[in-house]
């Protein structure tokens, strides 16, 4: 397959896809549900082959878990599509209706972006979710999934594409790209592909961003922060920190850096660190933090029986002294190391003087993804929410909430840390743009330049 | 000056600029009006020096006209700022307010983009307009104007910046870059500059787009089309074509290509071409058009006394035979030449079978700027407006209306032919993005993953 030629074909089909009625697009989604249910056994068979191949290749268990497509995952995927059918049509919304002058009417109408290339990790439900989002929003899509789910992706794509075409969508509405080297061909399709959405490792996303002239939406890094303020409620805050770091450390919205107000550090660190270490989190931090931790240990305030007692840190063994004292050793890191995304059970620690220093640190070292303040002080919270320049600014809740499903968008094609177009979790609204329609009756600009006529700009 | 260092300083000031109240931003605009009025004589003096230098260098008269900053232009500039003060604040608009679950509230709030670099042509009013747009929208801006207005820009920038700081905006809210080689430094400021808006020639804008990793908003080419449909009302349509081509041919929203329905070509071309040629427009076209024009001339239907009579083509000498018959010669052009922006009194001509072929041509050779159908047929119009993939799709009016002021946006920083973020004329709304604010009370994602809690997603 020559990707360039296929992309050009798709570009020509895009206006027809964009013109498909809401009924047709929803009918396609319903047909996808139908065909997935009818072909469940064949899908599971192909998936078992992918899983077997991964096991034979000694792929890590955590990865294999993600490759598996079982009854539960199929049920969730179908529930997701069903929810999407019920969501409001993102296409054809009139967001401005203005009479510029007598009989000269301007409308701004939402329209699909056109042709979108999505490159995603080896997760079978991703193919279904992304296809559904693109169909619902009237976009044509070129899909490239991870190679570890090649057989599952192949059967899923065939079923999804067949259902879409059977419902009346253009043949070129969806295209599957299967070979890794075809990604480089895709990157050269400017003019035909309107948008690329890469998902995966930092390096991979950065590679895409550096090697194409097509606009890219997504995030290379997810360096999320929590700032534990002087006025934080520790009983409420510690579980939030633990959730944000440990609930799923491999994802972009997990916290990487904890900033602690210096005034409460000696009291707060014992509780926080016991809870984190009990979950197996490794500590890194400034020299100041490393020294403070040593002092706290020497004073029996950290790693002892009493520390953390009475605070529900949602981890069973916090407050017990079963943990090796060495687990509290803080590996000293330099300033520039704070721009590191671990996606692992490691956390960076730093003390700051106040919320202003915290916000400055986040703006300097963060990736503008999602950052949180833990505080009972309204003024400090407002300062943080206002001054931190990130897609998500949170107060008193886990950074892990940064997700299209949790925001109620039905699903997401990715999370954007760019500032243009869509920011944060990107759902249907991020997959449309708009056009201006101007309807006249022979109006000339010359008449307005000469002063013969005047605009009156009346909004309906 | 080291642009990189200044941009970094500005980046740190950007959250403070973004937090400036509407009152402060409007006060800054009011103070700019005041200082411009107080210093009018000094401004005119500097401008006279620029004009003198241009005259000494034998710069073309049309260009010199644009350089001049006189009473009228100052009055218009001030009227523009006054209008902007009255416009609704684009910052702080809540566009989504949703309770994800009990006590967990998500808001999407509009915020300034941050640091914007604008590179604009030698037009003194541009500096004032762009500064005002950025101040009103809470953005910091780096400004580089054309060298032919260097002295005017310098005094204007000093006055505008002084007024903004006096009103309470941060010292780093605006920066002027004066040397041409500093543009290349600016292009390397990714991370500190959030957006570049280049204005100027195709080649210049393309150079910017090809040489930076910073997102660029704007348009390289403005290849606008008019399709004259079978059911067009000629008396209404011919003046629209003339206005779109000749009212100001040097700008991006002037029409470059006229597509004519083959069925009416023999009747319509004489009227259309007489009107265009009378305005000095040179003709290019397909071989088919060139031959048809020869036939029409031979038959006395083109260039004779009768052609165009009775149709008001808003040009005095249409219908008269004072024009040299050679002016109707159509220079034959190839397919690929249709992707040419003339920004001059030249028009490309092609016959098409129907509206579908017209839309295909526009999508293939256009620049997705602004395209128009002239027709009384609602079905043909709807097809064109739906299928043409451009920022502006028009019916029965001049493409020259594609302009922020004419759309009622107060002013524009440029016109975008990209599909992401802002499309078409870009006013205040295109200079803001949004952030999500999530306010909780200790909520953990783990509780939702385990099923202990459920989202209810209630919009306020």
The figure for the number of domains of chain A is 2
**So what's the overall shape of chain A?**
globular
Strand order of the largest sheet of chain A: 10-9-11-8-7-12-13
Distinct helical segment count of chain A = 15
In short:
Two copies of one chain form a homodimer. Chain A has 460 residues and is α/β, with parallel strands linked by helices.
Throw out a few tags for this protein.
alpha/beta, seven-stranded parallel sheet, four-stranded antiparallel sheet, about 450 residues, homodimer, Aldehyde Dehydrogenase, Chain A, domain 1, 17 strands, Aldehyde Dehydrogenase, Chain A, domain 2
Provide a descriptive summary of the structure in words.
- The structure is a homodimer of 460-residue chains.
- Chain A has 460 residues and is of the alpha/beta class.
- Chain A folds into two domains: 3-218 and 418-437, Aldehyde Dehydrogenase, Chain A, domain 1 (3-Layer(aba) Sandwich), CATH 3.40.605; 224-401, Aldehyde Dehydrogenase, Chain A, domain 2 (3-Layer(aba) Sandwich), CATH 3.40.309.10.
- Chain A has 15 helices and 17 strands.
- Chain A has helices at residues 3-19, 22-38, 40-56, 61-67, 71-86, 124-136, 150-166, 182-187, 202-210, 234-246, 265-278, 287-298, 355-365, 378-387, 445-449, and strands spanning 94-101, 104-112, 115-119, 140-144, 174-176, 195-198, 224-228, 255-261, 282-285, 330-332, 346-352, 370-374, 392-397, 414-416, 424-426, 432-443, 458-459.
- Chain A has a seven-stranded parallel β-sheet with strand order 10-9-11-8-7-12-13, sandwiched between helices.
- In chain A, strand 1 (94-101) and strand 2 form a beta hairpin.
- Mean pLDDT of chain A is 89; it is low at 305-321.
- At the A-B interface, helix 1, helix 10, helix 13, helix 14 and strand 13 of A face helix 1, helix 10, helix 13, helix 14 and strand 13 of B.
């Amino acid at each position: 397959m020559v990707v360039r030629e296929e992309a050009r074909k798709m570009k020509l089909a895009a206006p027809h896809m964009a013109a498909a009625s809401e009924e047709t697009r929803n009918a396609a989604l319903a047909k996808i549900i139908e065909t997935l249910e009818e072909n469940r056994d064949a899908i599971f068979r192909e998936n078992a082959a992918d899983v077997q191949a991964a096991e034979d290749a000694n792929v890590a268990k955590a990865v294999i878990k993600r490759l598996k497509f079982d009854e539960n995952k199929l049920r969730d995927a179908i529930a997701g599509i069903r929810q999407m059918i019920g969501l409001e049509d993102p296409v054809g919304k009139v967001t401005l209706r203005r009479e510029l002058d007598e009989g000269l009417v301007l409308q701004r109408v939402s329209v699909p972006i056109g042709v979108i290339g999505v490159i995603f990790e080896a997760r079978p439900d991703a193919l279904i979710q992304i296809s559904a989002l693109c169909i619902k929003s009237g976009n044509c899509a070129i899909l490239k999934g991870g190679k570890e789910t090649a057989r599952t992706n192949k059967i899923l794509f065939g079923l999804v594409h067949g259902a879409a075409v059977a419902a009346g969508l253009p043949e070129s509405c969806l295209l599957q790209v299967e070979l890794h080297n075809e990604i480089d061909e895709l990157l050269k399709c400017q003019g035909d592909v309107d948008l690329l959405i890469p998902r995966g490792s930092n390096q991979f996303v950065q590679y895409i961003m550096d090697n194409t002239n097509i606009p890219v939406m997504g995030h290379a890094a997810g360096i999320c922060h929590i700032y534990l303020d002087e006025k934080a409620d520790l009983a409420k805050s510690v579980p939030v920190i633990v959730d944000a770091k440990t609930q799923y450390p491999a994802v972009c919205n997990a916290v990487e850096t904890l900033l602690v107000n210096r005034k409460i550090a000696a009291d707060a660190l014992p509780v926080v660190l016991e809870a984190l270490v009990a979950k197996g989190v490794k500590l890194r931090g400034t020299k100041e933090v490393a020294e403070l931790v040593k002092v706290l240990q020497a004073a029996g305030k950290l790693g002892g029986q009493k520390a953390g007692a009475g605070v529900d840190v949602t981890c069973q063994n916090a407050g017990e002294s079963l943990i090796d004292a060495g687990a509290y050793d803080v590996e000293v890191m330099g300033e520039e190391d704070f721009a590191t995304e671990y996606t692992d059970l490691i956390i960076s620690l730093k003390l700051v003087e106040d919320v202003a220093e915290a916000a400055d640190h986040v703006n300097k070292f963060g990736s503008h993804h999602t950052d949180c303040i833990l505080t009972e002080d309204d003024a400090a919270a407002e300062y943080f929410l206002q001054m931190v320049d990130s897609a998500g600014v949170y107060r008193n809740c886990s950074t892990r909430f940064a997700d299209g499903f949790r925001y109620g968008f039905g699903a997401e094609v990715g999370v954007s840390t760019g500032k243009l177009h869509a920011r944060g979790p990107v759902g249907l609204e991020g997959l449309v743009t708009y056009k201006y329609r101007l309807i006249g009756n022979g109006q000339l600009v010359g008449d307005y330049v000469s002063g013969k006529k005047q605009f009156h700009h009346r909004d309906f």
